[in-house]
Amino acid sequence: MVRLLSALAFLVTLILPLQAEALSASDQSAIQKTIETQLNAFAGDDFATAYEQAAPLVKLAFPTTEHFKAMVKKGYTPVYRNTQRNFGQIFEDQAGRPTMRVVLTAEDGKRYEAIYAMQKQEDGTWKIAGCALILIPGLDV
Length: 141
Fold this sequence. Notes:
- The chain is of the alpha+beta class.
- It contains six helices and four strands.
- 43% of the residues lie in helices and 28% in strands.
């Protein structure tokens, strides 16, 4: 059920009509900082801080920190626990959202590409609107 809700939340964010906007260096930095903040919070089991980085639609799908925690621990282990992260470029996804690739090395040595879709809030902050994980074959350490 948790995985289904997670997939639904991500798919809904893909179909929402969003306007593409040029990203300033400040926005790009803020996007990376939001993702880093969430990854650091997961590393410290600080799910309240990790949850704060989620966009409203994600919070709608996972209405409490406990629901969010269960989803992350069950379906996003490389995001929850990783030993290395490499931030890539920000690009625009098919829905026009700024999206950042982050290569994560899981504790078991497998590498994953985490694709973070971002959403700018009315107050100017950036929140994580979805994350897709893709195993990178052949790059285990």
